[in-house]
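To close the section, here is one more complete example, presented without commentary so you can practise reading it yourself. The ligand is uracil.
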Amino acid sequence: MIEPGKDCRLCGLCEGRTNLVLPSGDLDSPVVLVGEAPGENEDLQGKPFVGRAGDILNKYMAEVGLDRGRVMITNTVKCRPPDNRAPEEDEMAACRPFLNSELKGRKVIIGLGKSAVKDLMGYTGPMAAVVNTKQRIVVDGEEVEFIPTYHPMATVYRKEAREQLKTTLRTVLEEYL
Ligand code: URA
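Output:
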């Protein structure tokens, strides 16, 4: 895997950065979960999904019996966007070589939410139309399986989205680990 240097200036997100947020969990896992972007807690701690979204993800993982340490977790971009806005296309593109190096050779990639699904699958339609479908994406010239699903924050007030995300996590456990 390649990672940005601590003084990376490949896009404007560097301006607000406290820490780069690099992948965590089992770095050799066959499964990678890709979120949107670091939030405030992630920026302060330098680790993905350690704030509210992480608490929600941890809760669902515990409910389906999936140990968070068995998967790798990362984001489309490694630096926090201002005011927690979604990362822009040029920012995701600048960070893409690092993400590609994290995804190559895995059994399955899980796209958590619209930004990851846009970046990796090029899809910008409604999530409901693609959630939990098995797709093939090309990463650096190699095909990898890809499953789009809801972002943890999108499940807060939506039972249907919550059930779909838990279905994804169950699929990870039963079919890919
Ligand atoms: N924290 C992350 O690391 N990624 C997200 O998408 C949301 C919160």
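Once you have examined the tokens, check your reading against these statements. The two ends are 21 Å apart (CA to CA). The chain has five helices and six strands.
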